[in-house]
Every structure is written in structure tokens, then in C-alpha cells.
Amino acid sequence: MTLVGFKSFPLPLAQLALDAVLKCGQSFRWSTIAFPLSGDKELEDSSPSEQVEYRLCLRDRVVCLRQSFDTLYYRSIFPDPQPTSITLPIREAETLKWLKDYFQLDVDLISLYREWGMKDKVFAKFRDRFEGIRILRQDPWENLISFICSSNNNISRITKMVQNLCIHYSSPLISIKHPFLPSETLTYHPFPTPSVLSRSGVALHLRSLGFGYRAEFIQRTAKMLVDAHGIGCSDPSSPQEDPELWLQGLRGLSTADAREELLKFVGVGRKVADCILLMSLDKKEVIPVDTHVYQIAVKHYGMKGSYGGKTNMTPKLYEDINSRFLSIWGDYAGWAHSVLFTADLKFFSNYGSAISSTEKSPAATLHNKKNSPTSQSGSPVISPSARRKKRLHRQVDLVEPEFPTTPKSCKETTEHMNLVDRVKKRRRNV
């Protein structure tokens, strides 16, 4: 199909599943906008790329994505003055280049899954259900501050903190019409710069916004960077400040040296440093070890410890877990771990499993109140209409969203199966 205003390129779901990758605790700024359910049968029969949109605000544009089972759709929305007919193709080419870099599309994820599945029987159990999960290559500055916010926190609360940073410390870049409700407008803010977050008074204000002790960590880390590298930009071709460029330069250091630099910042311990190394500094072998990863190691890989209980994460235990997984998964161990990490998250407990459960019993339906998720309103998930089922051989349905990152009128919904479920059913019906 063709979406007006969008460009596209072939990309199977097995290479990138946006509904998982953008919600598994890597990035906290993507907003997911789903079409509000209206009982419209025509809408129910529309393709997933018509029903949900993901958006991220960069410094100079908003990137919008939609996805079907075999295609990624993208477009850029720019603030005024708008690009000319001559410069627009250049700007669009920049967006495509950014997408390929951000999602690291040069890495063949299907081959990696196959390799990990052959080496590891545990991974093989999850590979089909959690396909398309890859590591993002994020901006190191944003990644650093986001994971300082992650200390003793959960994904939903981290998301709210990061959004508050943007709203309160970054001027709005652009206001855009809601993709599905034209009468509504959504405003987008880029991520704030180090010079802004380093100012006196930031920590006090962040505390008033609910950041707690992380408020001081954010302000002091930003100030350390500004004091060491200045507040300007020595490269006139770059929209980034010198502290941000310095952080990007850590990609060229060894894992050990880059980690040493990160550990100098306030609020950055070993686990936070490893998250930054993996998700923005190209250290693909690094495995950030937290409670989820420890429990995975104990439950599935024979590590000594108490499954479900509290554990003192000593440096030796941390290293032992890293070494164990690295010996199994190899150079891309950090990527492999993200699949099992996602599978261990409570939010993904039913991810990719709805189809198999309905096939076990003809009487089972998606609106089973006991075993199925509910919508945000508390009503049970609705099973597909008969008309939609007839069209599943041609299309997949709406992804299952997670965070209410948009205004109330366009809150994400869980009224439909996620995209992975639909693809699997489509394959079975072919």
C-alpha cells in the first residue's frame, strides 16, 4: 500500500519490530499515537500502517514512522521555513541516513537470531515470539541523562521524567496536527542541551517535578561536561554542543576506556555505564546486568543464586554473568541479551502469544477476561471481526502500545493484537 506523504523501503518485521524495540527500555522519547477506536468497520479493516504512528523529535525535525509486516514507512516534518524543492530531497536523504544509523540496519538481525538459536537452546525458545528486537544507536548525551533517570525506576516513570526534561528545558520545535484527529495539534520538543541542564537552579526545579535525588545527578553531570568542554560548538556544521561531540567521541575508545570515562559522572555506576556503552557507544558485546538479567542467568543458565529473591550484586558476580553470556552469544552478546531482557519484562508477558493460545481451543477468544489484557478504560480486549479475519492473508493489525505519551484524546490503546501476533497468524493462513 502507499501512505500519502510517506516514503518507504522494504524491511521485514524479523529485522525490526517497532512495537517491541521502542518500548523495551532503550529509548524513552518515542511517542506512539494510535487511532482511537470508534467502532468504524472500515477502520477495523485498515492496515496497521494506517492505524499507528511513532514519532521522535530531533533538533531540526520530527521523524514519523509507520510499519507493516514487510515495509517501514517514514517521513520528516520540518519547522518553518520549509525546505525548498531543491533542498527537500537532501533533507529527506538525511532522514533515511539517520534511520539506518539509529536502527543499525546494516546489521543482519535474522542471521544473528539464527546464530544465537543454534548456540543457545534457551534463546531458541524465544526467537520466534520476540523477533525483530535490535539495539538502537542513540545520541550518547540523551542516552546518558536518560539512564541517570533510570536508577531505581521503571520504564513508565523514566519516560515521564525524560518528557518533562524536554518540555521544561527545551523550546518547542514545532506543532503538528494529530495524524488521525486533524482537529487536534501535538507539540514537540527536542532533548535539552548540556548547557541548559548545567544551569544553577535546575536541580531544585527537577526535584519539584519528582526527579528526587536524580535531579542533582543530572545537573552536576551536565555541569561537569560543560566545565570540561565548554558550552559552544566548535564545529559550525554540527547542531550539537562540544560536550555532546566529546561524548560521541567515546565510540572510538576501547570498552574499558569508554566505561572509565562514563564512571566519572555523578549518578553513573557500572550498570548505567554499560547501558550507555551498549545503546549509544557501539559496544555491542556489553551486557548491563540488573535484576532482570540476574534472574535470567539463575533461572535459565545455571548461575548460583536465589530466583525471585534479592541479591547483592557484587563486582565479581556482575563480571561472572557478563562472561557467561559472552561465552554463549559472542561478539553481539549485548544484542542477544536484549531479547531475553524484553521477554522477561512484565509488559511483554503476553507478547506474541495470543495466536497460539486461541489455536489451542476453538472456544478461546481474545476477550477472555481472565487471561487477556484489557484496554486503558478497563474493558476487555476485543477479538477481531469476522471481516478482518478474512483479510489477514493480506495484512497484519495494530501493534499493542505501552505508554500514554500523547494527549488523552490520542492515548495508546491495547484493543488489538500486536503486529507480531498478526504476522504469525497471517503466515499460518497462507
Automatic annotation (TrEMBL):
Record-linked Pfam families: HhH-GPD, OGG_N
The enzyme's E.C. designation: 4.2.99.18
Polar residues composition bias: residue spans: 371-382
Compartments, record wording: Nucleus
Recorded family membership: Belongs to the type-1 OGG1 family.
GO CC, alphabetical: nucleus
One MF annotation (Gene Ontology) recorded for this entry: damaged DNA binding
Residue ranges annotated for the HhH-GPD domain, each copy included: 149-345
Protein name listed in UniProt: DNA-(apurinic or apyrimidinic site) lyase
Gene Ontology biological process: base-excision repair, AP site formation; nucleotide-excision repair
Alphabetically ordered keywords of this record: DNA damage, DNA repair, Glycosidase, Hydrolase, Lyase, Multifunctional enzyme, Nucleus
Catalytic activity: 2'-deoxyribonucleotide-(2'-deoxyribose 5'-phosphate)-2'-deoxyribonucleotide-DNA = a 3'-end 2'-deoxyribonucleotide-(2,3-dehydro-2,3-deoxyribose 5'-phosphate)-DNA + a 5'-end 5'-phospho-2'-deoxyribonucleoside-DNA + H(+)
Organism: Pholiota conissans
Keyword Hydrolase found: yes
Family matches, as SUPFAM superfamilies: DNA-glycosylase, TATA-box binding protein-like
Positions of region (Disordered): 361-417
Major localization class: nucleus
PANTHER family assigned: 8-OXOGUANINE DNA GLYCOSYLASE (PTHR10242), N-GLYCOSYLASE_DNA LYASE (PTHR10242:SF2)
UniProt xrefs under Gene3D superfamilies: 3.30.310.40, Helix-hairpin-Helix base-excision DNA repair enzymes (C-terminal), Hypothetical protein, domain 2
The keyword Amino-acid biosynthesis is assigned to this record: no
Superkingdom, taxonomy of origin: Eukaryota
